[in-house]
Records
---
Amino acid sequence: MLVPVKDMNGKQVGEVELSDAVFAAPINTSVMHQALVRQLSNARLGTHDTKVRSEVRGGGKKPWRQKGTGRARQGSTRAPNWVGGGTVFGPTPRKYTKAMPKKMQRLALRSALSSKAASGQLVVVDKVAIDEPKTKTAANMLAALGVNEQSVLLVMAEKNIPVWKSVHNLPQVKSLQSGYLNIRDLLGHDMLLLTKDAVDAIETWLAVPAAEEAEA
C-alpha cells in the first residue's frame, strides 16, 4: 500500500510502502472490542468499598429489651435497616484485570491500523521537528496537514519533549511513542498521524511471525 509522505508544511515529499500485513490486514472487530474492554478494565483501580454492619462505628448497645415493648426486636442500631447502618452486599475492593494472549493483542492493533488506513484516517509525515515547545507551531502543522479540526493521535518512534509539550495544550491531540501504541487511543481519535520512523517501528513490532501465519 503506497501512502504519500508529507512534511510539516503539508507538502508531499515522497511516498512510503506500508506493509499489507500490518496496515491492510483483515479487520477483526470482535478482537478489537475484546482488547478495548480489556484495556478499560485493567485501568480500573477497584478501590471502591462500603462498610458492612460489623465495620460501622457505634451500635454496641441493644436499642431496647427483647420482649415486652410491642416493637420489633432489634439487636443494633447499625443493622442495615437503620439509618446509618451497614450496607448489604455493597462493593468491596477487587481487581478488574483481564488477560489476553499477545497474539490477540497484536491482531487487535493490526485490525485498528488497517481500519484507519482503509477509511483514509491515516497520515504519514516525514518528521516532526520542533526545537522549542510552542503550541502555535504544532497547531500550524496540523492545519497544514488538514487534520486540525479532528482529534489526532500523533505517534513518534522516540520520545520528543518539545513536541509533546507543543501538542499538550491542544485538547484534541495526543502524542504517543510507537512502543506505547494501544487500542484505546487508536479507536478514540479520528486521525492517526505517523512519522516515517514510527511506521518502521510499528511494522517491526506488529509483523506477523511465521508461526502465526502457519496457524492462520
---
Amino acid sequence: MPRHPYKKRTASPDPIYNSFEVSKLINYITFDGKKTVSRAIVYEMLGDIKKQNEDPLKLLYKAISNVSPTMEVKPRRLGGASYLVPTEVRKDRKLYLALNWIIEAAQGRSQKEFRTFKEKLLAEVVDASKNQGQAVGKRQQSEKIAEANRAFSHLKW
C-alpha cells in the first residue's frame, strides 16, 4: 500500500468520438511518446469499421465487454505458503486488462496475414466483439484459474 494517498488522474475523452475508452486505447498503444502515430492508428481502425457499415463505438464497447474479466487471482502469502485468492475485478482494472489483452493479441498476430498494426488491431477488435480471438481466450483462462482457486476465497484481505 502507498504511504500517502494519491489523487487519481482522469484522462479526458478523445476529441472525435468523445469517448473515454477510445482515449485510453490511444494512450495504451502509444510507444516512445508518439501519441500522434497511435492516434492515427486507432482513428483509421475505427474509420475502417465505419466503412463496413457498423457503429465503431458499439463494436469497440462490445469487444471490451467480451474481453474484460469478472474475476482474477491475486497471490496472498500466509504462513510460508502462497495462495492464489480469487478477487472481483474493479471497473477501471477491467478496462485496463481488456484493452491491454486486445493490444497484446493484435501484436501477436502473424506478419504474413496482416501487414500493418492497424489491420491486426482491427481484426482483433472484430474477433473480440464476436467473442472469439486470443484476447477472449486470455479472459477465459484468467477466469478458469479464479474458479479453480475458489477454495481459497475465504483468505481475502
